[in-house]
Amino acid sequence: MTTFSMYSASIPVFKQILNSLHAILEKAEAHAADKKIDPAALLQCRLFPDMLPFTRQIQIACDFAKGAAARLGGQEVPSYEDKEVTFAELKARIVKTLDYINSVPQAQIEGSEGRAITTGSGEKTKHFVGQTYLFHYALPHFYFHATTAYDILRHNGLEIGKKDFIGSY
């Protein structure tokens, strides 16, 4: 009988998609160079005017991955300055996020199903237990922003598909 693992339900999932986003960023950078597209045009592109731009989608996906790893591991969430304006800087942010989530000991995440977790502040404060936080808040938000980043690039002609998004596992 297999037991449920909070670590297996979180960290490998974040790593898989973050690695895919890193590879997609490399393809986007090459696409922009090949098609003589100003990289800033892709980096600031949005699916709709009231949505956040591509760069912000990557930043937020990274924020949810590191935030979940920290909160589930009982650690303080590291703060990243949102200053990336190039493909190289976004790739570096993903690598930094992967390094951080890899640094959270598995033993600290295991058993966090019932850990009290609070996010936000003031009127935006939300209270969860670990499992509810992971499955109903962190993962949905992470996937939303990762998928939106993928969709922005696909919409703008980057030849990527589902396999690029899912990556290898």
TrEMBL record:
<protein>
    <submittedName>
        <fullName>DUF1993 family protein</fullName>
    </submittedName>
</protein>
<dbReference type="InterPro" id="IPR018531">
    <property type="entry name" value="DUF1993"/>
</dbReference>
<dbReference type="Pfam" id="PF09351">
    <property type="entry name" value="DUF1993"/>
</dbReference>
<dbReference type="InterPro" id="IPR034660">
    <property type="entry name" value="DinB/YfiT-like"/>
</dbReference>
